[in-house]
Structure formats: structure tokens, C-alpha cells
Amino acid sequence: MKMGNLKNSHLIEGIIWLCGVVVFFVLTYDFNQPIEIYKFGATGWPRVILGILLFVTLGNLFHQYRFGSATQLGRVGIADEDEEDDNTPSKVAIVKIVAVLATPFLYAMSLKPVGFYFATPFFIISIILLFGERRARWILGITLFIYTLLLFLFMVVLNAPLPQGNVSPFYDYSAFVLRMNTQFQQLDLW
Amino acid sequence: MIENFLLGSSALFGDPLTLAIFVFGVLGGMLFGAIPGVSMLTLAAILLPFTASLTPTQGVMLFAVIYCTGTYGGAITAILFNIPGAPENAPTAFDGYPMTRKGLAGKAVGAAVLCSAIGGVASALVMMAATEPLAKWAIRNIGPPEIFALVFFGLAVASSVGGRTIWKGWMSVGLGLIIATIGQDPVGGIDRFNFGFSDLAAGIAFVPAILGFFAVSEIFVQAEKTAKGRYEAPPVNMEFPSFFELWQQKFAVLRSILVGFFCGILPGIGATLAAFMGYGEAVRWSKKKDSFGKGNIEGVISSETANNAATGAAMIPLLALGLPGGALTAMMVAVFQMHDLEPGPLVFYNSPDLIWVVFAAMFFANLSILFIGILETKTILYLLKIPFQFLAPLILLLATIGSYIGRGLVLDVMVMFAAGIIGFMLRRSGYSIPGIVLGIILGKIGEQNFAQGMQMVHYDLLDYLSRPVCLILIVAGTLTLASGLHKAFKTNHASST
After folding, report:
1. What local confidence, expressed as pLDDT, does residue B182 receive?
2. CA B339 to CA B342: how far, in whole Å?
3. Which ranges of B231-326 does DSSP label H, i.e. alpha helix?
4. Helix (H, G, I), strand (E, B) or coil at A16
């Protein structure tokens, strides 16, 4: 079958969008109940949007069939770096990219049990390393600087509540940091 | 008016505590706006409980000042790092960041400083002169059908900028709209798409979503470049725009003031739509349409003038009708309520002192953008010299704190990182991140006003079109969509693969 300028990546992209539309449409039956004061109910608006999404996804596939990944002439607001990069990255680069994508997510998942105060220095070190910095003094110095700056700004100055963790000994460490802050606040520095 | 303004100014500058709060608001708004990863909303969320110990005048004034200077501050990160400090600065990044890549960051930031100040001061003057008549006009002529029509027009404009093709522009806006349907429906309060998380009943909080789509996805883009060995720090340049360059843009400034003021005055719309429409109109009227998105200073000027022009106007529905125009003005309503006050027409009669201190503070805050902004710019440009491997963890952590503080939910941090990953993938495929964000912000407002409007006109769509403002906006939106569709089928393409 002739596929015009369609590539496998376009088909995968289209299938992901279509699956999303179908899944969300099926989920609308979970809340398909009438609202007495509103004729279209809770499903009316989402279903119209899903219909529009279906139309534009098919339009996008048709566009890719005719023109491939070409940028439409006259489009504005597209940075050069938003253009598709066809160079396949090396395996090392792929591993690094996946690690950068996963690290913040792991950090977010650790916030509830471990807490902000304990998990943050490790997170800073991981990100600096993943961005290619290898000088140990710089890594430790910048980690200490960012950690102290954040604690000073959000804990000491703004008293913002941050996750403390709920697993010992991480929770105990958070309690220790907060106790130090209380004692610091009670000092009559002026 | 002048007498009231002088009274307000003397109350502002005559009381040391009020003056200190004003200075704190000016500097805090600029700082939190200009730090990548947090925004004026983060500062406002942190400060909200503390306003209980201030007088109502001081509390509302503080938030109004943060709103003015924070709206400007967000332009700095949009221009320097492609990370808009707030959604209203998203269109600024379209041309501001390409200018930075070309070594023209000084010109872009200088234009943003000047035009934010001009837009803000003009808006503050109109607000002082015409709040009451404009509020009366808005009551008579603006209802849910008009607000829905403006949302429709705004989304049509948003879909025409940012994506690689018109289809991707529409898909981006559609994705934002579907994300906005998560949570309770605005009419019957029925849970939708909550995936078993009770915390999602209130919907996806837009601060984490915005931080994820803008800030986190940009970090991932830079990480990919670093991994591929393609990262290059942008050149630092301190050159400001010349008077001649700015004078050439006088019509763009005037047009954006009008667009910004019109959008700001409508309840629920605020500065974000103003910035998109200011940018969209600049493209529409320009003879060099192709230069937009590649570093055209008019793009920065139009977007920044419009969003600051909307700040003063957004106070009109808030103060005169009690209707907030965005997240920050909604927090101002909370400040009023903390002090047993209700914003609305009675405020003008019961608390004229409060009104005029707030008006004077907004005027001087916009003026201070000019002076402090010029001094601040040269310092801020040095941020570009910080190696990105040291800036990246700081931005990610500030974004983490910014998204956690709003509701105290770790789920919001996860939503932010998920939005970052999705944003990263979508950007690589040519989708429009600002389009998604505008869809998220306007989706609920659009649905709510559509539902109210349909109830008002007894489900007769033709009745919608019998309202003049509504008709103009619907026709303008439809023409924008139709011309986009026409171009999609007729125009040539820049490159073929």
C-alpha cells in the first residue's frame, strides 16, 4: 500500500492520539449522568472536544501523508530547536536522556516517604552529574550552595511548609532541620 | 480623580509600613517573576496567610503590586531561558528567546522593560479614570455568551501560533482543553476523569502543569542537547534597543494596549489571553509575518505591552464586580474575605481609601518597572553566564517547591514532572506548548460560560449570535480557524522529509 510521505513515526504518533481519544471517550461513560439544570450534562463538553481532537488528528495524518514532517510555511512562534531532529542519538546519549527524564520523577516519588530536606542534596548531585559535570569540588560546592539557598529562602525567610517525609530516620532528619530553624528564629540577631 | 490619586499616593508614601510593603511587593514580584521555576503565584501563595496580620489596604495593595511587577518579571525568564515565568509571558518567548540565541538578549529585555512599563502605566491611568463607567458598560454588555465567545476567539488565535502546522496547533489546544476537563464539571459538580485519585476532584492545578510544560520540559530539551553534545550557551549582550527601534513600534504598542485592556476588563480572562491576542494581532498586521518566531522585537513588544495593559484592567471586574480575572486576582478576593470585606460596587463607597491606595500603588509599581527594570536588566543578563549544569537543578527544585506549595500535595509535583516529560515529547514533534497551557487555563472558563450562556438563551444558538459583541468575536474566531484551514491545504511547505 502506498503511504505517501507517511513514516512509521507518524503512524505511531497518530495511533497514540487516536487511542487517547478512544480511551477518554470510553471513560466519559463513567460520569454519563444527567444534570437537571443543564441539558448537555457532564459529558457534553468533553465529548465535543474529543470529537474535535479526532477530526484534527485525522487532519494531521492527512497532512503528514501529503507533506511528511514539513513545517507549514508562514507558521509563527516555532523556535529553531523545536524543529524535529532526525539525527539518531547514540546509545549513551539515549541512556543519559532517559536518566534525566526519570530522576525528577523518582525524586518526586521519594518526597512523601523521605521528605524534601533529606532527598534534595542527592537530587542536586544527580542532576549536576547527568548534565556532565565531573569536578567533585564544584559538584559539592554548588550542591551546598543551592541547598542552603533554598532552605534560607523557603524555610527561614518564608516559612513555607515543605514535605517532611514519614519514614524514620528521614523524618527525624527533617524534624532536626526544622528544630534548628526554630532555634535560629528565636535568636535575637538584631 | 487627581485629588483622589494624590490622597492615595500620600497614604502610600506617608506610612512607613505601607511603603515598606510596597517596596517588598515591587522587588518580590520582579524577583519571583524573574527566577526560572517559580512565579509571582508562588510568592502570592506563600504570602496569603500573612496578609491576615496586615490591614485590608496593605494586603490588597501588596497583591496588586506583585501582580504588576510579577507580570513583567516573567518576561525575563521567557527571553533568557525560554521558560515563561507565567502563562502571560509565553508569547514573549516566541521571539524573545530566538533574540537571545542571536545575542540580542539586551535588546529583548530592554524592550520588555519599557513596554511593560508603558502598558502598565497606560492601563493604570485608564483604570483610575474609568473604573466605574467601564464596570457599568461591562455589566450591561458582557455576559457568559460574550466571555465564551472571547475564549473561542482566543483559542482560535492561540492555535494559529506555535505549532509546526495548523493541525498540531489545534491538537495542542485540544489537549489542553481535555486536560482542563479533569475534575468536577462546573455545572453539576460530577467527578470526571479522576482515575481513582480523590485529589484530582479539584482538577489539575494549573501552576504545576504550567511549570511542567514550560520549565521542566525546557530543562529536558537542554539535557538532550547536552547528551548529544549540541549544547551551546547563548552569547551575552548588553545592548539596549535604540530610541529609533522603539519609536518604529509605536503602533504595535498602541494596538497592544487596546487589546490588553479589552481582554483584562473581561472577568475570568486576564493577562494570558491578552498576551496571545496582542501577539496574534501583531502578526496579523505585520508586513513581515515570516520574521515572527525568529527574533522579531515586535513580538516581544506586543506581548509584553498587552499583558501589562491587562493588569490594570483586570482590577476593574475585581473591584467593581467582585469577579477575579485570574489566579492572582482570585487570591486578592481571599485577602478581601480575610478582612470581612467583599469586593464589588460597595467597596467604592465603603472603602474609597483602599481603592485609591491600590490605584496609586499600581501606578507607581508600573513606573518602577522602568527604573528598577533597567538597573536590574544588566545584572540579570549575567544569569546567562551561569553554566547550565548548575542552573538546571536550581530551576527544577524551585519548580518543585512552586508546585508543592499551592495545595501541599506531592501529587502536584508528580503532575509537574509528568507534564514536563509530555511537554518534552510534544515539543520534539512540533506541538505548541503555549497552546496546551492556554487550553488548560481557558478550558474551564469556556465550559462554565458556555453552559451558563446556553441556559440564558434557552439552548438557542441563534440567540447567542444576536448579541453584537458575541457575534463579532464568534465571526472573528471562525474566520481565524477558516483561514488556518485554508492555509493548511493551500500553502507550500518550508521543508520536506
Report:
1. 93
2. 9
3. 243-247, 250-265, 270-285, 297-316
4. helix
Alpha-carbon distance values, B360 to B22, B374, B471 (Å): 11, 22, 37
CA B219 to chain centre: 21
- The alpha carbon of residue A27 is apart from the nearest alpha carbon of chain B, in Å, by 7
Amino acid at B140: R
Instruction: Supply the pTM of this predicted model.
Output: 0.82
Among A110-124, B18-32, B201-215, B437-451, the range with the most confident prediction by mean pLDDT is A110-124
Query: Do A161 and B216 count as a contact with CB atoms less than 8 A apart?
Result: no
Q: Within 10 Å of residue B231's Cβ, how many Cβ atoms?
A: 17
Range with the lowest mean pLDDT among A25-39, A100-114, B34-48, B458-472? B34-48
Residue B419 has pLDDT above 90, yes or no: yes
Of B283, B292, B488, which is closest to A63 when you measure between CB atoms? B488
Task: Note the pLDDT tens digit of each residue in B296-322.
Answer: 899 999 999 998 898 888 887 777 767
Report ipTM for this prediction. 0.90
Which residues are bridge partners to A38 per DSSP?
A35
Residue B425 touches chain A, beta carbons under 8 Å: no
B479 or B352, which is more confident: B479
What Cα–Cα distance (Å) separates residue B471 from each residue in B138, B276, B390, B443, B478? 16, 21, 52, 20, 10
Rg (CA), chain B: 21
Domain ranges of chain B: 2-486
CB-nearest to B220 from A100, A124, A138 is A100
**DSSP 8-state symbol, B52:** G
Chain centre distance of CA B273: 7
d(CA B291, CA B455): 44
Residue B497: per-residue pLDDT: 40
CB pair distance less than 8 Å for A72 and B400:
no
- For residue A40, list chain B residues with Cβ-Cβ distance below 8 A: 451, 454
Please give the grid coordinates belonging to residue B375. Answer: 538597573
Residue A116, number of CB atoms within 10 A of its CB = 27
Which chain B residues are closer than 8 Å to A163 by Cβ? 404, 410
Reported as type and span, the H/E element at residue A127 is: helix A116-130
- Rounded distance, CA B268 to CA B197, Å? 27
Query: Does residue B232 register a pLDDT over 80?
Result: no
At residue A161, what is the residue type? P
pLDDT of B272: 80
Query: How far is C-alpha B78 from the geometric centre of its chain's CA atoms?
Result: 12
User: What is the rounded distance in angstroms from the CA atom of residue B72 to the CA atom of residue B93?
Assistant: 13
Chain A nearest-CA distance from B162, in A, is: 4
CA–CA distance, B65 with B23 (Å, rounded to integer): 9
Residue type, B391: L
Of B209, B151, B242, nearest to B434 (Cα)? B209
Query: Which residues on neighbouring strands pair with residue B184, listed in sequence order?
Result: B191
Q: In chain B, pLDDT over 90 holds for what percent of residues?
A: 18
Q: Establish how many alpha carbons lie within 13 A of residue B34's alpha carbon, considering only the half-sphere containing its beta carbon.
A: 25
- Report which listed range, B29-38, B240-249, B472-481, is most confident: B472-481
Residue at A60: amino acid letter = N
C-alpha dist (Å) from residue A39 to A42, B149, B188, B258, B271: 9, 20, 11, 37, 32
pLDDT of B345 higher than 70: no
